[in-house]
Amino acid sequence: MLKAAGTTAAVSNMAAVDVLSQPALASELASQNKNVILLWLAGGASQLETWDPKPGRLTGGPFAKLQTSIPGVEISELLPKMSTRLDETAIIRSLNTKIADHGQGYFLMDRGRVPEPGIQFPHLGAILSHELGQVDSRVPDYVSMYTSTEGRRQGSAGFLGARYNPMFLTDKMVPEDIQRLESLSDADHQERAALRDFLAKRFVRDLKNPALGSHENAYERVRGLMASDHLFDIEREPKSMRDHYGPTQFGQQCLIARRLVEAGVPFVKVARAWWDSHGQNFETHRELCADLDHCMSALLDDLKQRGLLESTLVITLGEFGRTPKINGSLGRDHFANAWSCTLSGCGVRGGTVFGKTDPDGKTVIEGEMNAGDLFATIFAALGIPHDKEYMVGSRPIPIADFGSEPCSEVLA
Fold first, then answer.
1. 268 three-class SS
2. pLDDT digits (tens, 9 = 90+) for 350-409
3. Is 116 helix (H, G, I), strand (E, B) or coil?
4. Cα(343)–Cα(88) distance, rounded to whole angstroms?
5. Cα(212)–Cα(334) distance, rounded to whole angstroms?
6. What is the rounded distance in angstroms from the CA atom of residue 204 to the CA atom of residue 169?
7. What tens digit of pLDDT does each residue of 66-81 get?
8. Would you say residue 4 has pLDDT above 50?
9. Quick one: which of 274, 294, 296 has its CA closest to 285?
10. What's the Rg (C-alpha) of the chain?
């Protein structure tokens, strides 16, 4: 009896592993579903040294601007690779989110709204995992890599529940405690799973308690996570691909992000710190922009070549921008009244620039957008109705903040 059960369960278990490990099947899965990679610029990158340069002005700093592959569109000379890759990217230059404090600014740009007493709003990753994830998925819904670069773990699924909390990778790029113990052979592991499956199915059949289905689903997800530990191992990639992304931590995490979305993970956050350049802003951005430029370009190229960019939305975003005024330490301080972000890939009209700031970059003079509007635009790009509502008790909560509207100019 046990041998028969073991054979069936082992075959089933190996089939699941094979599906996850075959790139062609993983790619097909990703093409049928939509995914998001958030490149989080922790601390607040300067729009003036990235997407909205103002050379020649007192606020502009020392760097020139580059003519991009899109006629009439110019970005900072610190992003030369991205200047040739804007065909799939929309630049938004008119964010006015008003909150220039790290904690409150992060909350706003993580949830698309300000806090309210008595309700725990879910963060963007939780919402998109809920909307894009599959109930029977055997891969994680949401992976957040190296949030320790921001000094603390961030993000909560709020009223959506713990099912949509992120898998945090704060110390290394492979999740803790999901690998089979070396003392346990693969055959032993499969036989234990087979015995457990047999007993569990009989227990469920005899007891007929609906709560047991939830328990079984959770157990299967754990087994799925164990079977997908290889997704975090970039040594499985050819050396040429590892070289394509480069040796930096940010590049390696972007490569893992591609591996994860290719296998069907709906939301991956990769944080790059620390952009909080109150002093020596220009030296800081020379270094950080080089990393961003190379890794973002490598990621977009890789996704496009694999046919994944059509189904993957890549977002570059932080909690705010930097002041046009250059302080006495040659730095830029927190600034949330006129700053920039980008959207690339899925659902986005590439090669567009939305919004405009004044010649010194101090105010938005065209196309002002708040956090709620940005979230509504992200949802619309992914095919999620921006006016959808969740019911929390008897209270309807809109998926994007009240009054938010998507920006049609950047949507495909």
1. strand
2. 999 999 999 999 999 999 999 999 999 999 999 999 999 999 999 999 999 999 999 999
3. strand
4. 8
5. 50
6. 35
7. 999 999 999 999 999 9
8. no
9. 274
10. 23
Q: Which of 261, 260, 236, 241 is nearest to 175 (CA)?
A: 260
SS3 label, residue 119 = strand
Tell me the residue ranges of DSSP E strands in 160-292: 167-169, 267-272
Give the pairing type, strands 167-169 and 142-145: parallel
Q: Which helix (H) or strand (E) holds 252?
A: helix 249-262
**Residue closest to 293 by CA, chosen among 272, 309, 279:** 272
Nearest to 343 by CA among 32, 37, 31, 105: 37
Cα separation, 176 vs 178, in Å, equals 6
The strand pairing partners of 269, in sequence order, are: 38, 144
pTM for this prediction: 0.84
Closest by CA position to 270, among listed 339, 336, 317: 317
Give the residue among 146, 104, 152, 92 at the shortest CA–CA distance from 319: 104
Question: Strand ranges (DSSP E) for 280-385?
Answer: 312-317, 321-322, 334-335, 339-345, 352-354, 356-357, 364-366
Q: Are 138 and 220 in contact (CB under 8 A)?
A: yes
Within 13 A of 74's CA, how many CA atoms are on the CB side?
Answer: 13
CB 62 within 8 A of CB 322: no
- List, in sequence order, the alpha helices (H) in 147-248: 186-207, 211-227, 239-245
**Cα maximum dimension of the chain:** 81
